[in-house]
Structure formats: structure tokens, C-alpha cells
Amino acid sequence: MKVLVLCALVAAAAAWPNYGFLNDPGRSEPSDAQKQHDVNYLLYKVYENIRDEKLKSIGVTFDPEADTSHYTDNGEAVHKLVKELKDNRLLQQKHWFSLFNTRQREEALLLYDVFEHSKDWKTFVSNAAYFRNRVNEGEFVYALYAAVVHSPLTKHVVLPPLYEVTPHLFTNSEVIQKAYHAKMTQTPGKFRSYFTGSKRNKEQRVAYFGEDVGLNTHHVTWHLEFPFWWEDKHEGYHLDRKGENFFWVHHQLTVRFDAERLSNYLDPVDELHWEETIEEGFAPHTTYKYGGEFPSRPDNIDFEDVEGVACIRDLIILENRVRDAIAHGYVTARDGSKVDINNSHGIDVLGDIIESSPYSPNVEYYGSLHNTAHIVLGRQGDPHGKYDLPPGVLEHFETSTRDPAFFRLHKYMDNIFREHKDSLTPYTKEELEFSGVAIDGVSIDGPLETFFEDFEYSLVNAVDDTPQVPDVDISTIVSRLNHKEFSFKIDVTNNNDHEVLTTVRILAWPHRDNNGIKYPFNEGRWRAIELDRFWRKLSPGVNHIVRKSTESAVTVPDVPSFQSLIEQTEAALSAGSSEVDIQDYVSALGVPNRFLIPKGNSEGLEFELVVAVTDGKADAAVESLHENTVFNHYGYHGVYPDNRPHGYPLDRRVDDARIFHDLSNFHQHTVKIYNH
Ligand SMILES: [Cu+2]
């Protein structure tokens, strides 16, 4: 047996392109380009054998338990996973996977743990190649994505667009069927995707938002960066303001969706009620790669308890406990002590208890309203499991926003958060002022104009094939929202005799509701969409700040296609380069830049544009880091650089709007967004 293992290791080493170990002095890690190559091929055609010969042979010959000195936990995680594998306890391959399924999540996290405890890339990638052939593909993709996002070994690796890795979760079944046909007949094909539903369904008018592949990628990525299962003691570091980020990312989805509805002559989303009828049904038109169709939900059904998940009564009890905590101004921790939430930090604690995560001070008492609600709502098509259907769209971050009920569920949670925010004392003029600094004017260079464009992505990874049959090009074309480029021009006077640091915060809210009635300041500010947040130094005197729409800290550019990632990586490797020029795409955390501004209309949809320049020194949570730190969208590894609550200075109730209008460091004017 020993001899066998040894041979296997020698074979693996021989097949390996000069990889070294971090803990082996004098030898270095492989280049970023090599790592990118490996990740590309680990994810390419993930339901089949690895197409890279070296990785493939490592997948066969590697023994994960042979040398545990390459793991930071002495192989504890890998022993656990291998035992489950040998005992035949792991979920089969070619079966659906959902992160909300407790056992399936446990399995995916066992593999994630192996990656996270790998000391060097060789150990990481060898395990990936080995387990790719042995664990469920959905679990594998999740574990690998989460590990690449969090591991220091993969800092510069760009994850391929998820909609091209697992296209089934992003593409309508009709188009997927055509893709299979194209493959079977070896005929290249480009197929147009249409949004689900028909014109008889008014929700269809905003389906371009919930079904956008980029928006779905944003949502998945956020949940990968801030996983609800994250435990500091296990993972080794803390995710700063995770609970508050949970509130903020979903609050922004909620207000952005409402803004899109306005431009399509729809009322804002109504919050979900456990005791009222769910009027809107939903037909997902989406199929699992393995395991059948995503279940539908008919119109006008009443909530039913979901077998083995939760009773509606229990959800109402959880909600009441959370609302009680808000009314009391404190959360009761596990040991009975009180955690004060009547302050800026309270939103973070509330996010932790509502989602919930292991950061919750008392998960036994507050449960996990959000996660349970997702499952309960997702299962309303077959609450008693009579028809043996796979999980619903709401049980996947990739597919959740396709169902308009997702936004009703999140409006419900958003209103709970608002109840808390509204309970805090409004900011005073003194707190909001920035002494000596005044905004002289704000203008926009370029049109505020949205439009629809065609976008094509590959479905090659959707279909089954074998290395013996050559690939034909199969893709789909979807219509998607975009906008023309523009810049904000902000003139600021610094009357101090020295340089000052400022945080520039740009937000906008719809000027009127769907009946044409102006939103009062306090209503509007809660609906504000964050457009940008950045640091600037102001020299004494007049300063002209120009900020391009493409620079926004809350958005990300489109990740290059999977094919282009592969081509760029191979070109870099064959040119002997250690890097691939793709570093702009390392994080897919933000909203797609295409969605920076909501869709306008032909007459011009009015928005209140707000710019606040606040005291950067008082705002900074970290020393000097701010000079070259971008806000990095909705999160940040390490301490988040802005110590103000998300949404500041509009995050709290405003009883008297004159306070804002009297501030010289605050500017507001009405703009129009067009769509042609
Ligand atoms: Cu979410």
C-alpha cells in the first residue's frame, strides 16, 4: 500500500509544471497565470472529465491524505472528507445541489475546508482535481468559488462568469433545449432568450432586472463573499459589518427594483404578509441540469406550512421577537445579557439575527428569518413534498431574483430594518456639517440615458459531450439594460487654509411615485440608490472633482467571457508571462455597471440627485489607508474603510428636511433619466 502511494506521488510530481511549496524555503508558488489556467480548467465542462491532461492525471493519481504536512490543520479536514467519501455518504454526482439543503451544504463546506487549509497551490489544486471527479458537481463548483474568493492563494484569480459555468441556472429551459439539439446535430446555433412570462403578466415589464445574468452574478457573489455559514474561529478571520452589509446589499436591490418599476409604470413592491394571499404566481421556465424543472407557483395561494422546514406560525413568532428587540432597543444574547442596538452598530446586529449567521448573538431565540423564509416561500408550489419536486428558485442565489416574490420577501425584511433605523435619533446639523467646506455646484457631463442592447454568452458548458466529439459554437443572445457613459462634476470650495480629506457620497432617489406625487424628503431618502462613494483630498480654495460613471465604487465591469479568459490565459502562458491582464475583473461583487442608473423613459424620469461631501478624517475607520483605498463595493476584506453606516447621511429618519437644505456640504437637484 505504501509503495503504491509513493508511486502515485512521484507520478503526480512528474506531471506537474514546476510547482513549489510556500513552506519550502527557496521555492515559490506558481505564477498567477498558471493558477488562472488551473482554475479555468477545473471549471470548464464541470460535468465531465477534466480537459487538461496534467490536471486530469493528478485527479487520478493524487492521494489527498498522503502528506498532511501541507495542510494548516494537519489534514483534519481532508481526513473527514475522505472518510465520508469512503463510507459512501456523499451526495451522488449528476444530482441537483442547493446551499440551503443542510446536508449538501455540509458536504460542500467539507471540501471548502480542504481548500482553505491547503498551505500551497499544489495542495489546493491537487485536491480540486481529485475531488472534482468524486463529489457532486454543484458542491464542487460552490466550494471552489467560495475558496477562490477567500483564499490568499488565489488573490489574483478571476472566476469565470458563473452563467457560462452553470448556464442552466441562468438560462430559460427553451433555449437550453435548443442548445442540446444543436449539440446533438453538431450544428452551431445562436438562440435568442426571452424573459419568462407573457405580456399578460405586468411583472414581465421588469423581468429584465430580476433575470439579468449580471445581476444574478452580483447576488451570488455577494453571498459568496459574506456567506451565512461563516464562522470566524473556523475560517480564521472576521467579516467586517457582515450583518449591516446583508441589510445594505438587499436594501439596494429593493430600492433599485422599485425604481425600475416606476420607469415601467408599476407601483412599488408590496411587502409580503404571512397571513395574506400571495397574489403573484411564478413560472420559472428554468430546469436543473440534473433533477427536473424548477417548480412553479400558481396565482393567489395562501401560505402553507412546509413539511420539515417551518410552520408559518413559527415565522410569525420569529418576526415578533425581532420586532420586540427593535422596540426595546436591545437584543437578548444567549446568556441572557442585553446587546444594545440603539446606535449605529445596531443595524449590524440586526442583520446578523435576521439572515441569520453564526454571528447572531442568539440564533436559538431569533432563528433565521431570512433563510427560512426563502425556503418556505420557495416551496409554496409543493409545500407537503407530494410531488417530489426539486428546490425552488428561491433556494439558489443564482435564481432567486427571477421570482418577483423575492422582492416582496425582501421588502418585508427591509421594512423591519427600517423600523429599527427609524427608531434612532436623527442626525443634527452639527453632526452633518463639514466645517469650511461648501459644494458650489454639481453638474453631469454627458447624457443620463439608458438603452437596451444584445448580449451573447456561451452555452457550451450547458450541454453534454465527450472529448471525441468536437465542440460547435452554441450561445444565447439576451436583451439587457445599459446606459451611456457620463461624469459627475462637483465643484467644492475648501475655505480652510490647509488640505482636507473628504468622502464624496452620491445617491439618487425617484422624485415622484407612480401616481406622480412627490416623495417627501424622508420617504425619498429611504429610497435612495447609492451611485458612488469615494475619497478625495481638497486643497485650499476651489476644487473641481470629476468622477466618471465607469469609476463607481458600487459597480463592476462585465467579466470577460469564459472563452476569452481561457484564450488570454493561454496566450500569457505561451508568451512566458506570469500574469494575465485581467486584474480589473478580480472582484465581481458590485452591481453590474450597466445597472448603475435605473432605466429612464422617453419623457425623462425624474430623480433627486444628492451629493454629500463629508469629513474624510472623521469618516475613516483606518489610518492613512484611505489614500489609495477604493470602497470595494459592498464589502471589504479587513476593516471596512468608511466607519459611517451604509447610506449615510440619509440612513436615518429626517424629521426636518431644512437641516439638509441648510448644509453647505450637501447638494440636491432634480435630474432626468431618459431611455431611447
Ligand atoms: Cu440575497
UniProtKB/TrEMBL annotation:
Source superkingdom: Eukaryota
Entry's transmembrane regions: none
Domain Tyrosinase copper-binding residues, every copy: 403-414
MF (Gene Ontology): oxidoreductase activity
Gene3D superfamilies: Di-copper center containing domain from catechol oxidase, Hemocyanin, C-terminal domain, Hemocyanin, N-terminal domain
One Pfam entry name: Hemocyanin_M
Secretion signal span: 1-15
Coiled coil residues, start to end: none
Keyword annotations from UniProtKB, A to Z: Signal
Family stated for the protein in its record: Belongs to the tyrosinase family. Hemocyanin subfamily.
Protein name: Tyrosinase copper-binding domain-containing protein
